[in-house]
Here is the input.
Amino acid sequence: MLSFSLLGAVELNQGDKKWTPRGPKVRQLLSLLLVRPSQTVTLDTLVEELWDGSPPRTAVQTIRTHVYNLRTGLEREAGLPGAAGLLVTEPTGYLLRVPPGQGDVDRFRRMVGEGRLHLEKGDAEAAAGVLRRALDLWRGSPLTNVPLGPVLAQHVAHLEEVRIRGLELWVEAGMSLGRHRELIADLRELVAVHTLNEWFHARLIEALHRSGRRGDALNAVQSLRRMLHDELGMEPSAEVRRLQLAVLAEAG
Here is the structure.
């Protein structure tokens, strides 16, 4: 069965066979069709993505050539003899027929939703398990092998936000299970990557505190304070200040 991956390099999967178009513009076209599976992507959207406001006069004809090349690749290289029925020409654009739930983005969203429900029901163990499996679907940044125009860049930004929410839920589940020591290394990596996400900083401070590392917790507070002051001219959130006071009170 045909499936596809967007959470990393873009790939089409047919059984054990993986395929990605060689041409960068064709990869852009395929990616735009895959982020909107079974939905019509208009010519205007394709022009905006492929040329970012400066299309050539031959833009529409060039898109038709890219579509032809994509169909040919799907049939001859990806091993999909019914490619003409998969990549459909519509009056306003093009549509790629993909069975529901065959993309890693759909699987990730579904698993994050399951994890959230487990947390709401108080089953942190089940939540942590399903959320870990969801996060393991990520093989890097979305669409890593695709040049990003304005449309795909918005999709990538959205997917990164969805990933952050999955990470937050996974950390929440781990904290609920008392896995503070185990989470410290992951939280240090998260605050290094998402430097302005105070929620991750707060969880690192909390994990250090609950692991008996009060000095390290206070150092994490001071590091966050300096970063916010230097970058944004701001003070830490009320939550971070409360955590600092809790550490200081226990130290006293």
Notes: The CA atoms of residues 49 and 149 lie 5 Å apart. The chain is about 65% helix and 10% strand.
